[in-house]
């Protein structure tokens, strides 16, 4: 049911309360800091929306008919395509992989024709054709024809392709890593939950080998830790330090506070629930203050940069117009001398720059000569940078000027080469789903029925979207096993690189102590 909810402050934190006529009241932590909530809320902005929607409606009935609909407020910033729901791991907190023996289990792997049709749908999006694709699963590298899938995406005009993976096949099979890179995969969205075997049993031993394969193939990496309170939230600083040691290929760490799926009591939710501000506070503590709470901005804070580029070019441009509570980020740069991180806001007046971009965008829209206005913007950029505090070897004003003048995807990419992006993305679940956030979502799924569906509808309401749609284009596990001549469980990773005979952790994520403790708590 769709319920009215109250979002309110109590004891310095933000909560959501709603009352179901059948099940009673449900209260959930929504945002761990009211001060940060107020700061982030100043960047609230509507996006361009879907000018060529697949679902035409006169009155919004969100979230009943996603597709995108004509009331959605953001275009696709990142599109996801599930290429398989098979996985070689069985992580206890994962919300999506096929489990043999469960009622309603199905095997979903879209055909090449379906992949091509989905790509055409994404590229038909207006006013901004979808241009960034994430291949996801399951584990995409289990498909023998994954290089063919990537080539189809490139043929249909998608410039940037990243693969959401656990990295095990990259570690075990460097030749496969080379093949997907040559096919057109730009970077790995690499699962990485901690720096110890206890917090990251899924690929602790394999990560160094996967990174080595990426170095040899020129594949960049984004670390993606799923953050679970009481499980791995004490290692966020360690994850950042590990990324720092590998900054030659690791260009970002994107923390994802866990989405609590399934039926879970309030006590269990409170044990595992962590929000964006909670993670940011732990990072400040665990980095010794190198990255502080004040260094972070919400994702839509970059909208003024889009606005000034759009005004200058007179063409719609890629924008990140998600809800301010969905995500946050900052850039940090390593000082060449001290080897310490210097976050962008420490040496640049970010707020001043954003106000400059917004003011000049308005001047151009009002009829002022756009060339003179942009030259004025570029000249003024250096005044917002404290060169005494700017890390050695970095010219921030020049980088910004390059983005403004070239207005290209490659120009934006220069940021990642020079620094490390730290991000947060908190996907919703049934306990904290907020339709105001959903209507601004820009992380979408393309589906074989040729719809484009926001992440937090697709996965939070699988009964309406993920499972309902994919079952139509699937076969049973038994049919798949008969066709392929193998058993589903034969594809599970047996921990061939893992150390220590008799060590429970060496048996993999499904048999780790962490998994047993979590399973007991959920029973």
Automatic annotation (TrEMBL):
Database matches in InterPro entries: Aldolase_TIM, GDGT/MA_synthase, Methyltransferase_Class_D, rSAM, rSAM_sf, Zn_ribbon_HMPTM
The keyword S-adenosyl-L-methionine is annotated on this UniProt entry: yes
GO MF terms held by the record: 4 iron, 4 sulfur cluster binding; metal ion binding; methyltransferase activity
SUPFAM superfamilies recorded: Radical SAM enzymes (SSF102114)
Alphabetically ordered keywords of this record: Iron, Iron-sulfur, Metal-binding, S-adenosyl-L-methionine
Organism encoding this protein: Candidatus Nitrosotenuis cloacae
Chain ranges passing through the membrane: none
Domain Radical SAM core: start-end pairs: 73-290
Pfam families, sorted: Radical_SAM (PF04055), Zn_ribbon_HMPTM (PF23545)
PROSITE patterns per UniProt: RADICAL_SAM
Upper taxonomic lineage: Archaea, Nitrososphaerota, Candidatus Nitrosotenuis
Domain of life: Archaea
Full protein name: Radical SAM core domain-containing protein
């Amino acid at each position: 049911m769709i319920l009215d909810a109250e979002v309110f402050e109590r004891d310095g934190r933000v909560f959501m309360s709603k009352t179901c006529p059948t099940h009673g009241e449900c209260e959930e932590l929504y945002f761990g800091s009211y001060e940060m909530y107020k700061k982030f809320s100043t960047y609230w902005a509507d996006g361009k929306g879907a000018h060529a929607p697949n679902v035409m409606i006169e009155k919004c009935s969100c979230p009943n008919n996603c597709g995108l609909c004509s009331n959605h407020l953001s275009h696709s910033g990142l599109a996801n395509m599930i290429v398989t729901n098979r996985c070689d791991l069985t992580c206890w907190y994962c919300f999506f992989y096929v489990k043999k023996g469960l009622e309603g289990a199905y095997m979903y792997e879209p055909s090449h024709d379906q992949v091509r049709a989905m790509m055409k749908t994404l590229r038909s999006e207006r006013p901004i054709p979808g241009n960034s694709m994430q291949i996801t699963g399951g584990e995409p590298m289990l498909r023998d024809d994954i290089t063919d899938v990537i080539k189809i995406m490139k043929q249909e005009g998608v410039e940037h392709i990243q693969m959401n993976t656990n990295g095990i096949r990259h570690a075990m099979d460097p030749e496969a890593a080379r093949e997907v890179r040559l096919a057109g995969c730009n970077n790995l969205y690499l699962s990485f939950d901690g720096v110890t075997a206890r917090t990251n049993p899924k690929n602790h031993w394999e990560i160094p080998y996967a990174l080595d394969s990426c170095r040899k193939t020129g594949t960049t990496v984004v670390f993606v830790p799923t953050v679970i309170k009481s499980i791995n939230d004490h290692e966020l600083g360690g994850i950042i330090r590990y990324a720092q040691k590998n900054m030659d290929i690791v260009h970002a760490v994107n923390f994802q506070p866990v989405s609590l799926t399934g039926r879970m009591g309030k006590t269990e939710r409170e044990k595992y629930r962590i929000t964006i501000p909670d993670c940011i506070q732990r990072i400040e503590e665990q980095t010794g203050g190198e990255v502080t709470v004040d260094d972070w901005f919400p994702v839509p804070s970059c909208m003024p940069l889009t606005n000034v580029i759009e005004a200058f070019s007179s063409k719609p441009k890629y924008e990140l117009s998600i809800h301010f509570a969905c995500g946050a980020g900052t850039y940090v740069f390593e000082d060449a001398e001290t080897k310490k991180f210097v976050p962008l806001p420490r040496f640049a007046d970010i707020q001043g720059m954003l106000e400059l971009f917004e003011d000049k965008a308005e001047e151009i829209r009002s009829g002022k000569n756009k060339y003179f206005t942009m030259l004025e913007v570029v000249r003024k950029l250096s005044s917002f940078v404290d060169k005494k505090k700017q890390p050695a070897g970095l010219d921030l004003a020049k980088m910004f000027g390059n983005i403004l003048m070239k207005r290209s995807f490659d120009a934006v990419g220069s940021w990642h080469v020079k620094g490390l992006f730290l991000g947060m993305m908190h996907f919703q679940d049934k306990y904290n789903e907020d339709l105001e956030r959903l209507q601004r979502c820009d992380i979408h799924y393309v589906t074989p029925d040729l719809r484009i569906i926001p992440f937090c509808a697709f996965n939070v309401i699988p009964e309406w979207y993920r499972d309902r749609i994919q079952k139509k284009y699937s076969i049973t596990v038994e049919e798949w096993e008969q066709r392929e001549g193998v058993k589903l469980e034969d594809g599970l990773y047996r921990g061939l690189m893992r150390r220590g005979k008799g060590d429970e952790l060496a048996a993999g994520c499904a048999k780790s102590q962490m998994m047993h403790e979590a399973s007991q708590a959920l029973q």
